[in-house]
Each structure stands twice: as structure tokens, then as C-alpha cells.
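[job 0412] stage=fold_complex status=start
inputs:
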Amino acid sequence: MFLTLLKRELMLARRNWVAVLIPLFFFVIVVSLFPFAVSPEAEFLQQIAAGVVWVAALLAVLLSLDLFYRGDFQDGSLEQLLIMASPIQVALSKVTAHWLVTGLPLVLISPLLAGLMHLNYAPNGAVEMNHTPIMMLSLLLGTPTMCLLGAIGMSLSLAASRNGMLVAVMILPLYVPILIFGSSVITASLANSGYNAQIAILAAILLFALVLTPYTTGKALKVAVS
Amino acid sequence: MASFSKTAGRWFHQLGSPKWFYQKSVKWLPWLWISCLALFAFGLYYSLWASPVDYQQGNSVRIMYIHVPTAVLSMVAYLAMAVCAVIGMVWKMKMSFMAMRALAPIGAAFTLICLFTGSLWGIPTWGTWWEWDARMTSELVLLFLYLGFIALHSSFSDRTKADNAAAILAIVGAINIPIIYGSVKWWNTLHQAYSVTKKGAIDPQMQTPLFIMIAAFYVLFIILVIIRLRLEIMNREAKAKWLQQEVGLGQESNAGANG
Amino acid sequence: MNWQEFFSMGDHGLYVWWSYGLTLLTILLLLLLFNVYRRKLLVKIKMQQQEQSLKARVVKTENVSG
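[job 0412] stage=fold_complex status=done
writing structure:
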């Protein structure tokens, strides 16, 4: 059942592939604005790279939520889905599809942004270190949590308003922990200190969210169609 | 034991009835106001006059007597909101959802008070009105959670949906608060270099006034919640005959029905 | 402590009195907002009640004529 639902979500996404690419463009554009806003100096960009990439990823995930929930809610197919399958399955299939279509591409495109933000910059004479895989790992562990938490906010606001800001206002405060640990993984790697603890905590938060949020999202979806 | 559970059951039942609460709470309010003012009279006397001056922070330590009680209550209010949310969702008790809605603006107001008193305390002690201190940052996030809750609840046109959706958000928020607090604390120790001075431990001589002020703010909080809850009942039971009589519109309707 | 000290609060009078004053102001503002809301609700309840009694009258006259 879950696989059928997932296939349906992915098929819908494929049909609407331009809209699916927009969050990726958004991610790249937001990050590339920072050199204009602050300074193009490599040393400086390297310092803010972790925060910029993480905040841009958060916003990209939040803004792409609409695509996976609004359409189904408006044409009534969400109601059909909830009759067909259990709310948890519906929620999980939507979150998985959302992550596969936006979260994973964000992770895969992030090396480009690491380059733009001079993440691996080393002053003359110093040995250049490659921090890109660490950044990708932090995003790999962080983006699913973003999708899971975002799904709650999106399903709660489905029946309320079309205002995307509402989801942001509700959910962004909940993103504080993963933002702290996620960007600190990269910062710690830049400072040549240990980052295993932060990675472990990110993974723990992901597992915690994976256990609790599908049920909550299912509940919220049921409230939306009730 | 049986009689205890019977009494508890009756209380639960009565508290679940908007009519019972609306009629009884009027009689509670004067007593609560009297005890509130008495507690504040004592509390303010101690906190502004009779309590010692901190040897490091001088008189600015007197801000603590507002800052700490409001900080405590801002968290208690969110927790109470989450408890009301659970009760409302499990037992479908409408009073519980009303209480949840009534708590939100008051909790937000107390969080706001906690934040600006903290800022004003920060100017003489930290040398700046905002420091990314763990507790202050958590309070800021708490304010965002309250605002998100109020924004969500008020953007529905259907009240049942609004209650249920906002209840889910309150529960999710309450589960997240310890995680947020823990991570903010961890993040703060990472950047310890930035915090100039710490707000110190409490002198025993300051404990008594602090406890009185906590009690005073608690009673004030309860009064505000009761007032707001009564308004929520007025809003939701506007069609009920008993409420129309309660606010002095009853005779007219009887006359209309008879004539 | 004397009155002079009480008002100046060391050199921290500004911060202490602003804190207490703004707290009082916030709570008064909250009560004021509640009062405004209360007045709005009273109007709403009155309208509800008039609507109901009007309906009751309509039903009655219909019964009489029927």
C-alpha cells in the first residue's frame, strides 16, 4: 500500500517537474545572493557558509511543501486517500516523496554551493581540506527531519489558509535544534574539531521525528478533511 | 477511595460545563483579586524596598522579582495549553479547548514581559539589551511558538477544525520545548566567550520576596485566564439561552416568546 | 533605604522603574483588550438573541395562521 501511494506521489511530481525544480533554483539563488550582500572574500564566505547553506535549505524545503499537499486537498483526492489507506501511510508516503524530490536533490546539489561559498578555502600555504562530504552528510541527516516537521505544519494549515507564511511561522521555531546541530557539524569540521556528537544528535532527532511525526501528520490531515 | 474518585469525577464533569464555570467563576473573581492585590502589596514592598541590594548588580537585581515569575508562568502556560489540548482531543471536552484558546494570549503576554524585563536587566548587567543567552533565546523561541499557535487558531473559519489543529500544534510544541531548550543551551556553551556576566545564584534573603512575587503573579495569571475563559464562553455559547440571561438579555427574550 | 534611594535605585532607577512600569502597562493593556472584546461579544450575543426571538415569533404566527 505504502509503495502504491509513494508511486502515485512520484508520478504526480514527475508530471509537474518544473514546479519540482523551483525549490532547487531557489536554494542556489538564495545562497548566491550572499556574496553580493556581504563580501566575495573567500575567507569571509567560508565562515558564514554553514549557516547560509542550512538556512537556505530550510526555506527551500518549507516553500516546496505546498506542492505535495495543496493540490490533493483542493481536488478532494486527499479525502479519498485517507479512506483508502491509514493516515500514517498517507503521511509517510507524502513525506518520502517530498524528500526524494526536493530534499535529496538539495543534498546532491550542495557541493556546488560549497564551491560558491569557498567552503574548502585554505589560506596560502595551508593544506586544503575537503569539508564538502561532511556538509552533505549533515544535510542528508537534516533534510528528512525538515520534511517530517514541515509536513505537520503544512497539514495543519491546509484547511486554514493558502498563506505560505503561516507554515513558516509555525514550523521555523521547531527547526531551531536541527539548525543548531546541523550547521555546527560544518563549523566543527572547519575548526578541525570533532563533530561525531553533533552527527549522532542529528540522527537521533531524525529517528525521533520519524517515529512521532507521521502519526501527528496523519491526525492533522484527518482534521483538515473532516 | 470510591468517594474520592466520585468527587473527582464530579469536579471533572462540572469543570467541563461552560454554564457551571461561567456562573461560579464570577464568585471566585473578587476573592482572587483581593488575594492578588494583597500578595502584590507584600511582594512589591519586599522587592522594591525591603530586600537587599546585590553586591554585584546593585539595584538592578530587583528586576528579577518580575523576570523570574513571568518566565516560570510563560512555560507553565504553554504546558497547561498542551495538557488542555490532550484532554480536549481525547475526551472531546469543549471547555478544555476553550481554556487552551484562553491561555494562549496570556502566555504570550507573560513571555513578552519576561523578554523585555530580561532586556532591561541586561543593560546594566551585560552591557547590552540583548545577549544570545540560553534562557533568553529559549524564551524568544517560546514567544514564536505562542504566536504560531495564535496565528494558526485564528486563520480557520471552522471552530472545531481550528481547535483540533491548534491542539496538535500545542502538543508538538510542548514536546519540542525541552529539545529546543537543550540544544540552545548546548549551542550557548559552545559560544561561551560571548557572554560577559552571568546572572548569579539567588541569595537566601531574596528568596522570600521572590516566592511572594511568584505567588502573586500566579494568582494574577489565574485571574486573567478566568476572565479570558469567560469571554471565550461568551463567544462560543452566544446562542445559549442561559448565557443571554446571564448577560442581562433574558427577560426580553421571554417576553418575546410569551407575547 | 530612604525615599531618595528608592526613586534613584542606585544608578539603576531607569531600568528598574521601566521594568515595573512596562509590566504594569502590559497587564493593563491585556485587561483593556479583554474589555474591548467583551463589548464586541455583548453586541454579538444581543444580535443572536434578537434573531432567535424573531424566529420564535415567526414560528408562532405561522402556527396561529395554520
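[job 0412] summary: Chain C has a mean pLDDT of 85.
[job 0412] exit 0
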